[in-house]
């Protein structure tokens, strides 16, 4: 009974199945019990709450759409989206940990890996016994990953990997890294690099003011000998990493609506209770404008996500549709966090309320997995047929 009731202005719950609601409520309960009470402290200390790994694994948040035979949940994409929404209502860093593991590590191994690679890694990644990270971004190549410098050359039944990746979520504690690198012909391939391989290190990135409860680091490869059997055989070229990103971006579109809901819910309750000039601040037109616009944008984003989920379940969602949903959801969530902060006045900047933490987190989420600008250019290219990137 005391489960959080999310804003549902257009009765979107009626579009969900019984299974969707069960999955969502299970994650919602867990976030309420195991994440929300402690997450502010972890963020203040810039520490990763490692206890969540077991919970995320038990709830099936790692690779929920991966088939059961490989340890996944065998769920549909709407169930996956709802899970991400609930996790991010807790904290974007917690959702990031699950997104990376499911969409950026398990997805490429499942989609492009050999049967042996799938059997070796997927069940352990699903349970959280093994954690992974995804290395695409480099110090000099962010929005333009095609220019990557990380490369490998053949050496018998091994390859020798050199280069560096930057801004890698989960890197400091990951057991494996799915790394995208160029071979001697300049083709991009994915390799599974394991912690402990000589010459492989993962220095932590310190001093972040955003996603402080998510561990971020570099991946440094100094003549790392990787067995050829660790190369993902099923893909070459940029479409490998880009298809992983499309899967993760879909989860982000749902996730940030969760952060927006938490900000809206907090601001609405606060505005009804806070008295100034002898009346609740919720009674002032300027406050109502903010709250009314928040719920309108949340509702629009919820409907867009639900429709995108239906298309994805039918195998019809395009990467450009995912880009639009990710960009829109991050944009509205960032604005909602800022308006919610404003409604709380001075209290809005403290850790007693979740708003400032969401607001700072969203500054990363609007940038990673394709920036706000890049997603706009993807829409632009999709509707005009003209590439404005270069
Ligand atoms: P840049 O590409 O240098 O862009 C800087 C600015 O220029 C942006 O505003 C951008 O929109 C704009 N810009 C660039 N090109 C164009 C253009 N053609 N037209 C118009 N504007 C343009 N990466 C991973 O591989 N794995 C991870 O796990 C991961 N986790 C991350 C976690 C965090 C907390 C953060 C902050 C980043 C993470 N990233 C990860 C990296 C992230 O994906 C990149 O930061 C992002 O792709 C942008 O790259 P950049 O930071 O190098 O910015």
UniProtKB/TrEMBL annotation:
<feature type="domain" description="Acyl-CoA dehydrogenase/oxidase C-terminal">
    <location>
        <begin position="237"/>
        <end position="381"/>
    </location>
</feature>
<keyword id="KW-0274">FAD</keyword>
<dbReference type="InterPro" id="IPR009100">
    <property type="entry name" value="AcylCoA_DH/oxidase_NM_dom_sf"/>
</dbReference>
<comment type="pathway">
    <text>Amino-acid metabolism; tryptophan metabolism.</text>
</comment>
<protein>
    <recommendedName>
        <fullName>glutaryl-CoA dehydrogenase (ETF)</fullName>
        <ecNumber>1.3.8.6</ecNumber>
    </recommendedName>
</protein>
<dbReference type="GO" id="GO:0046949">
    <property type="term" value="P:fatty-acyl-CoA biosynthetic process"/>
</dbReference>
<dbReference type="Pfam" id="PF02770">
    <property type="entry name" value="Acyl-CoA_dh_M"/>
</dbReference>
<dbReference type="InterPro" id="IPR046373">
    <property type="entry name" value="Acyl-CoA_Oxase/DH_mid-dom_sf"/>
</dbReference>
<dbReference type="GO" id="GO:0004361">
    <property type="term" value="F:glutaryl-CoA dehydrogenase activity"/>
</dbReference>
<dbReference type="InterPro" id="IPR037069">
    <property type="entry name" value="AcylCoA_DH/ox_N_sf"/>
</dbReference>
<dbReference type="Pfam" id="PF00441">
    <property type="entry name" value="Acyl-CoA_dh_1"/>
</dbReference>
<dbReference type="InterPro" id="IPR052033">
    <property type="entry name" value="Glutaryl-CoA_DH_mitochondrial"/>
</dbReference>
<feature type="domain" description="Acyl-CoA dehydrogenase/oxidase N-terminal">
    <location>
        <begin position="17"/>
        <end position="129"/>
    </location>
</feature>
<keyword id="KW-0285">Flavoprotein</keyword>
<keyword id="KW-0560">Oxidoreductase</keyword>
<dbReference type="InterPro" id="IPR006091">
    <property type="entry name" value="Acyl-CoA_Oxase/DH_mid-dom"/>
</dbReference>
<keyword id="KW-0809">Transit peptide</keyword>
<feature type="domain" description="Acyl-CoA oxidase/dehydrogenase middle">
    <location>
        <begin position="133"/>
        <end position="224"/>
    </location>
</feature>
<dbReference type="GO" id="GO:0033539">
    <property type="term" value="P:fatty acid beta-oxidation using acyl-CoA dehydrogenase"/>
</dbReference>
<comment type="similarity">
    <text>Belongs to the acyl-CoA dehydrogenase family.</text>
</comment>
<dbReference type="InterPro" id="IPR009075">
    <property type="entry name" value="AcylCo_DH/oxidase_C"/>
</dbReference>
<dbReference type="InterPro" id="IPR036250">
    <property type="entry name" value="AcylCo_DH-like_C"/>
</dbReference>
<dbReference type="GO" id="GO:0000062">
    <property type="term" value="F:fatty-acyl-CoA binding"/>
</dbReference>
<dbReference type="InterPro" id="IPR006089">
    <property type="entry name" value="Acyl-CoA_DH_CS"/>
</dbReference>
<dbReference type="GO" id="GO:0050660">
    <property type="term" value="F:flavin adenine dinucleotide binding"/>
</dbReference>
<dbReference type="InterPro" id="IPR013786">
    <property type="entry name" value="AcylCoA_DH/ox_N"/>
</dbReference>
<dbReference type="Pfam" id="PF02771">
    <property type="entry name" value="Acyl-CoA_dh_N"/>
</dbReference>
<comment type="pathway">
    <text>Amino-acid metabolism; lysine degradation.</text>
</comment>
């Amino acid at each position: 009974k005391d489960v959080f009731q999310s804003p549902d202005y257009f009765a979107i719950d009626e579009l969900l199945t019984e299974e969707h609601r069960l999955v969502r409520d299970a994650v919602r309960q867990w976030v309420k019990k195991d994440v929300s009470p402690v997450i502010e402290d972890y963020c203040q200390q810039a520490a990763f709450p490692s206890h969540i790994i077991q919970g995320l694994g038990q709830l099936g948040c790692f690779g929920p759409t991966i088939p059961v035979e490989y340890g996944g949940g065998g769920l549909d994409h709407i169930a996956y989206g709802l899970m991400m929404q609930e996790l991010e209502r807790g904290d974007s860093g917690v959702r990031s940990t699950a997104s990376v593991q499911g969409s950026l590590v398990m997805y490429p191994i499942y989609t492009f890996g050999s049967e042996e690679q799938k059997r070796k890694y997927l069940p352990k990644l699903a349970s959280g016994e093994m954690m992974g990270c995804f290395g695409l971004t480099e110090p000099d190549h962010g929005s333009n990953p095609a220019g990557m410098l990380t490369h490998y050359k053949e050496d018998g039944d091994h390859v020798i990997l050199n280069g560096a990746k930057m801004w890698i979520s989960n890197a400091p504690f990951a057991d494996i890294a799915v790394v995208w690198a160029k071979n001697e012909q300049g083709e991009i391939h994915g390799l599974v690099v394991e912690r402990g391989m000589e010459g492989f290190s993962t220095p932590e990135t310190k001093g972040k003011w955003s996603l402080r409860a998510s561990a971020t680091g570099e991946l440094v490869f100094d003549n790392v000998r990787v067995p050829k059997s660790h190369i993902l055989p099923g893909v070459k070229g940029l479409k490998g990493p880009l298809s992983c990103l499309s899967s993760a971006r879909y989860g982000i579109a749902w996730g940030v609506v969760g952060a927006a809901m938490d900000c809206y819910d907090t601001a609405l309750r606060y505005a009804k209770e806070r008295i100034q000039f002898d009346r609740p601040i919720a009674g002032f037109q300027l406050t109502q404008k903010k709250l009314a616009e928040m719920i309108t944008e949340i509702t629009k984003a919820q409907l867009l996500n639900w429709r995108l989920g239906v298309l994805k379940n039918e195998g019809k969602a395009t990467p450009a549709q995912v880009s639009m949903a990710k960009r829109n959801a991050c944009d509205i969530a960032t604005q909602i966090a800022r308006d919610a902060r404003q409604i709380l006045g001075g209290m809005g900047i403290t850790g007693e309320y979740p708003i400032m933490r969401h607001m700072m987190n969203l500054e990363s989420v609007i940038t990673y997995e394709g920036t706000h600008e890049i997603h706009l250019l993807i829409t632009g290219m999709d509707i005009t047929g003209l590439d404005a990137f270069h």
